[in-house]
């Protein structure tokens, strides 16, 4: 029933905007291939940088309008990457790019809504997820907590996608990243905390396939009248399980960040490259979310994006939110989703139709970089920004997670 309501509302939106419903599907693109060329050993990082959950002095949306088109040699340099291992050793890998013309499209910006201020805009529209039916099932169980204070999202059985500044400030790796850990929420069972092999699933645990509509349900509950906002928390707490979720922490085996994030290359931190992939020491058994190429906001129903993370002002709680995109460039989404420090690094996802199928599928199309201040004509302005997954970034992440052969189309 809920899927039908969502379909009707999507159809109504498409009619009012003159867009056919079939347009709201994943558009398959041929993905370039990034290949390793040379790898060099670098000195051991100092791990002395301080963690910063807000960036300042970065190139914002106005600045991006004036950026020159990157040269082919620049792209190869920006997409080369560092790998730091748990024992402190570090390497630099230079890459080659295959399958695309050596001309990058000009940075463009589409303005949709006027800029506003603050990280929470007006009435706080975030949902604190406390019901284990949501917490432990897809898509919410893909959200993870990073020991440096950020969030991330599972993208393979052994890999987590997060923001680069959660582990590196542009000059050095931050304190605590040498012994980086990732926390995955799991239920504590009665007694030993583990379910016996072959034991039947508890009635309180709903199979993932049945919870595939969870964020859509939350969106419907939160998009009604203002009078209904007070019911958000109570609705999510209904049928509260006796078993309490807790974090199971896993050590990180290696961390990879693009060279474009490092100040030696750009002269400053480049928000376009604020993403990193963490390889876990042990694989998890949770369902993870696939990557997708970030579409133009006009190809997104309502320009609506979703993400979940561990906001610092709601300790120990998974927080879900959704909002519309306000501005965009080739590499960034600008939006006003209510968010606080701690949600940085969350995976932003969409739910669109699979090509030539009736099924809907979620994919990660951006990484939430956080609340950021920029200097515009001598004045400080702020916004919440997300790094879009472009075809080149998609290819780079595929290389990092060892999935190059399957990343042919996004």
What can you tell me about this protein's structure?
This protein is α+β, with helices and mostly antiparallel strands and 410 residues long. 14% of the residues lie in helices and 31% in strands. It is built from eight helices and 19 strands. The strands form two sheets. Strands 2, 5, 6, 13, 14, 15, 16, 17, 18 and 19 form a ten-stranded mixed beta sheet that branches. A six-stranded antiparallel beta barrel has the order 7-8-9-12-11-10. A hairpin with a 4-residue loop joins strand 3 and strand 4 (90-98). The longest helix is centred in the N-terminal third of the chain and has 15 residues, at 2-16. Residues 1-22, 104-122, 192-196, 198-212 and 225-241 have low confidence and may be disordered.
């Amino acid at each position: 029933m809920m899927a039908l309501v969502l379909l009707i509302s999507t159809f109504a939106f498409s009619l009012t905007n003159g867009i056919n419903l079939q347009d709201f599907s994943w558009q398959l693109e041929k993905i370039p291939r990034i290949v390793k060329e040379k790898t060099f050993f670098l000195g051991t990082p100092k791990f002395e940088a301080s963690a910063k959950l807000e960036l300042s002095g970065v190139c914002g949306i106005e600045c991006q309008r004036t950026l020159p088109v990157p040269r082919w040699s620049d792209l190869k340099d920006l997409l080369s990457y560092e790998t730091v291992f748990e024992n402190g050793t570090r390497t630099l890998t230079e890459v080659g790019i295959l399958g695309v013309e050596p001309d990058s499209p000009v940075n463009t910006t589409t303005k949709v809504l006027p800029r506003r201020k603050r990280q929470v805009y007006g009435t706080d529209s975030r949902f604190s997820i406390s019901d284990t039916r949501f917490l432990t099932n897809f898509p919410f169980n893909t959200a993870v907590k990073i020991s440096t204070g950020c969030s991330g999202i599972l993208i393979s059985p052994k890999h987590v996608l997060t923001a680069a500044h959660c582990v590196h400030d542009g000059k050095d790796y931050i304190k605590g990243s040498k012994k980086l850990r990732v926390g995955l929420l799991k239920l504590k069972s009665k007694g030993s905390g583990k379910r016996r092999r072959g034991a039947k699933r508890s009635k309180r645990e709903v199979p993932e396939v049945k919870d595939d509509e969870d964020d859509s349900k939350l969106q419907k509950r939160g998009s009604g009248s203002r009078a209904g906002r007070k019911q958000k928390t109570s609705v999510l707490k209904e049928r509260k399980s006796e078993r309490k979720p807790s974090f199971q922490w896993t050590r990180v085996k290696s961390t990879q960040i693009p060279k474009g994030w490092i100040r030696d290359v750009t002269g400053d931190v480049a928000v376009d490259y604020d993403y990193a992939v963490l390889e876990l020491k042990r694989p998890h058994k949770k369902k993870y979310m696939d990557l997708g190429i970030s579409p133009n906001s006009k190809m997104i129903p309502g320009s609506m994006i979703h993400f979940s993370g561990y906001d610092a002002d709601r300790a120990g709680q998974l927080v879900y939110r959704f909002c519309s995109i306000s501005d965009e460039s080739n590499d960034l989404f600008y939006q006003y989703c209510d968010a606080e420090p701690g949600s940085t690094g969350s995976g932003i996802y969409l739910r669109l139709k699979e090509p030539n199928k009736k099924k809907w599928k979620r994919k990660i199309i951006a990484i939430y970089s956080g609340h950021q201040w920029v200097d515009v004509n001598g004045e400080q302005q702020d916004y919440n920004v997300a790094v879009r997954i472009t075809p080149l970034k998609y290819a780079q992440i595929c290389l990092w997670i060892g999935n190059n052969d399957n990343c042919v189309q996004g």
